[in-house]
Amino acid sequence: MALNLRMSDRNAPRDGEGDADVVLQTKPKTKRPPLYKVLLLNDDYTPMEFVVHVLERFFGMTHAQAFEVMLTVHKKGVAVVGVFSHEIAETKVGQVMDFARRHQHPLQCTMEKE
Ligand code: TYC
Description:
α1 packs across α2. The strands form two sheets. This protein has a three-stranded antiparallel sheet with strand order 4-3-5. The chain is 38% helix and 24% strand. The chain has three helices and five strands. The protein starts with a strand and ends with a strand. The longest helix is centred in the last third of the chain and has 17 residues, at 86-102. It is an alpha+beta fold. The protein has helices at 48-59, 63-76, 86-102; strands at 3-6, 22-25, 36-41, 78-84, 108-113. The structure holds L-tyrosinamide (TYC). L-tyrosinamide binds at residues 40-44, 46-48, 51, 70, 73-74, 107.
């Protein structure tokens, strides 16, 4: 009769004989999907109130949170505005870039693997 062993069981003591039919079973893998940071970049032209609106509208921030994050981007040049799965991050970046373009602001939003 064949034995199904996990890798961690390989060297476990075993009664009986005959490893002829031993089948190694790899440990079930449940790797979490990678996460992506969504970044907002500063520029000299996009109005502060527009950026605050973007952060409220697409990132669910309160007005106070959005204002604080906007100021961080304004002063430091860039800030992480959220961390998401690849698909959600891509959607957020697309929404922000689209919204900015439609309003003719040069606001830039990007994503990078965490
Ligand atoms: N620097 C812009 C200004 O002074 C404001 C701004 C903040 C622009 C954050 C983009 O991501 C940004 N009007």
